What we know:
CATH superfamily of chain A: Winged helix-like DNA-binding domain superfamily/Winged helix DNA-binding domain
Structural class of chain B: alpha+beta
Strand content of chain B: 15-25%
Low-confidence stretches of chain B: 1-9
CATH class of chain A: Mainly Alpha
CATH architecture of chain A: Orthogonal Bundle
Radius of gyration of chain B: 17 Å
Number of strands of chain B: 5
Distance between the termini of chain B: 44 Å
Largest interface: A-B, 23 and 14 residues
Strand order of the largest sheet of chain A: 1-2
CATH class of chain B: Alpha Beta
Order of helices and strands of chain A: HHHEEHHH
Number of strands of chain A: 2
Helix content of chain B: 25-40%
Largest sheet of chain A: 2 strands, antiparallel
CATH topology of chain A: Arc Repressor Mutant, subunit A
Shape of chain A: globular
CATH superfamily of chain B: Gcn5-related N-acetyltransferase (GNAT)
Distance between the termini of chain A: 40 Å
Shape of chain B: globular
Strand order of the largest sheet of chain B: 1-2-3-4-5
Number of domains of chain B: 1
Low-confidence stretches of chain A: none
Order of helices and strands of chain B: EHHEEEHEH
Helix content of chain A: 55-70%
Mean pLDDT of chain B: 87
Oligomer: heterodimer
Number of helices of chain A: 6
Amino acid sequence: MxxxxxxxxxxxxxxAANPDRSISTAExxxxxxxxxxxxxKVLLTLGRAGLVxxxxxxxxxxxxxxxxxxxxxHDIISLFEETEVKCxxxxxxxxxxxxxxxxxxxxxxxxxxxxxxxxxxLATMLMQIEKRKRAQERRAEVAAK
Amino acid sequence: MGQPPQDTRDDTPEIRxxxxxxxxxxxxxxxRVTGQAKPDYWADIFERFGTRRQDKRFFLLADSGGKLAGLxxxxxxxxxxxxxxxxxxxxxxVDPERREQHIGEALFREICARFRAAGVSKVRxxxxxxxxxxxxxxxxxxxxxxxxxxxxxDLDDAP
Lengths: 145, 159
């Protein structure tokens, strides 16, 4: 996964987890240790896709405008990078059996990755995050005893 | 990334075991969802999962005031290459008009509770990887990729 895709997913998780407020690029950037400049470029793409809207002025920032139960990780990743494996030769008929066999392996792995990303929605991610937080809290409670 | 309408009807169905009298409605629901009527298949499923080894086999329905809103079927099994016994879900279906009402979730949670009562601690299934609706449903219930990978061989290409 490319850096922009990863950042877009993290930003959307942050915004979808806080549907009642707008969040600045500085706040998200600080949490995930990335520059506000890079984040702004990512959010521009997400805005064009209708997933976020920017709110100007004091207390402004970005808010989530998608449907967290419908938007999948694959939907987000495909805004930033190619998600299909393609033959790299200008003329695929030039590929020999060794190259096709290797292509088949890469395609198999890619198909599984796409199926995984395509089946996980932002809502599912938020649920998994809550689960992790609860487990972390339980561990902390046990450690404190 | 479409935004389906959210249905907020409060019409919580009862989750119960299937009976022989339900078979016609089960076949109708499955035919609506899959486009294929399979009466023999469902009669066989009912005979195997609705009448035998009831402590480990579950064929459950979501009954909404006498109307079938969904179904789920599964069993406790443990035969895959040394797998410890686990709950296995092999069918789940919800009336298309009753989706987004947590019926699939209620069915899944009920069968999980019955698996737990039967003494297993894992639930597994196998789903087509391009079936995003079903994959997303099981993901939303917390399921993740397990330790097994499904492999296949086209027998025409067999060595």
